[in-house]
Specification:
Its EC number is 1.5.1.1, 1.5.1.25. Homodimer. Binds the thyroid hormone triiodothyronine (T3); T3 binding inhibits enzymatic activity. By secondary structure, the protein is of the alpha/beta class. The chain has twelve helices and 16 strands.
């Protein structure tokens, strides 16, 4: 008899002393996740963070833990719990030379036993881009009656740049995507991939060229010093900043940060690790979860920044979503 039939668990089932545990591959994750599903799940996670841990639909989001490994790399530990989704997990991210991958451990929310070990890179990519998209749609809404097609700049050409371009094209139909990367050949390769998916994309030779007149700017690089200047950003544009997650790092210059209205996924996380905010002394206007809940109304026609730290609760809801969808396939 097939091991999966015996266990009833999705993915590859492993027998432990506490019951069956599923091993879920990256391939299975990508197969069952869609943008609409991830957007909805990440929205619940962000709202849960802003509701707080004691609300029936709230979330528990501790600070991430950094574990240096003798100067060779580091391990990041990102736990989270979202009550509404019964999603309890810990992501372990390994950042070493030549190896940058994550694994999510999903637990039963009331019994505590391990249910699944999930390869986490695809979830990390999609939930990060989904959070940016949710923030963008709240802070830079476009009425369906408007004929204007958004100009979307994406700085970077790696995995996060790719998914940010994809989700922006998904949420803003007809968007024109501009790609800039330090290596022009990487930008061109991403442009070709996006075009093969039916997305309108072109490459830019400089950051300034990419962001000129852009409505939405996504910074998806590993920059430790600012690469985006306020003088290049048109008034009323929206910026998603997903990097510079150390107190001494910065990817936007002080002029931009101090002139914009700033939102984040978690005040606590941002004040502990967002160099763009810490180094400039900028004020956080609200968490994006507060905006999603209708607790804060963003001002119109002003430049906005979503400073994304990436939260364990986002991994939790997506891991639960993957597990439940795979489980349904076995029934």
């Amino acid at each position: 008899m097939d091991e999966r039939e015996t266990s009833g668990a999705p993915g590859v089932a492993i027998r432990s002393s506490h019951g069956w545990v599923s091993w879920v591959s990256e391939e299975d994750v990508r197969r069952v996740l869609t943008w609409d599903l991830v957007l909805a799940a990440v929205r619940r996670a962000l709202e849960g963070v802003s509701r707080g841990p004691n609300h029936p639909s709230g979330a528990v989001q501790p600070l991430r833990t950094h574990v240096p490994a003798a100067g060779r790399g580091q391990m990041l530990i990102m736990p989270g719990f979202v009550n509404e989704d019964a999603a309890l997990s810990t992501k372990v991210l390994q950042v070493f030379p030549g190896f940058h991958h994550s694994y999510i451990f999903l637990f039963h929310p009331t019994e505590g036993r391990l249910q699944a070990m999930i390869e986490g890179d695809a979830i990390t990519e999609m939930r990060t881009a989904a959070a940016s998209a949710l923030a963008t749609m709240e802070l830079h809404p476009v009425l369906e009656s408007e004929a204007h097609h958004e100009i979307v700049a994406v700085l970077g050409a790696g995995k996060q740049a790719c998914v940010h371009a994809q989700v922006m094209a998904h949420c803003y139909k007809g968007a024109k995507i501009r790609i800039w990367a330090r290596r022009p050949e990487a930008a061109e390769a991403l442009v070709l991939q996006l075009r093969s998916e039916g997305i309108c994309a072109e490459s830019s030779t400089t950051v300034q060229e990419a962001v000129k007149d852009a409505d939405i700017i996504n910074i998806c690089t590993g920059a430790a010093i600012s690469i985006l200047k306020g003088e290049w950003v048109k008034p009323g544009a929206h910026v998603n900043s997903i990097g510079a997650l150390r107190p001494n790092c910065q990817e936007m210059d002080e002029a931009l940060v101090k002139s914009a209205t700033i939102y984040t996924d978690s005040r606590e996380q941002a004040l502990a690790g967002a160099g763009d905010i810490i180094k400039t002394g900028a004020t956080i206007t609200a968490e994006i979860g507060e905006v999603l809940l209708g607790q804060h109304a963003p001002p119109k026609n002003c430049t906005t920044i979503f400073k994304s730290l990436g939260l364990g609760v986002q991994d939790s809801v997506c891991a639960r979503l993957v597990y439940d969808r795979l489980l349904a396939e076995t029934e």
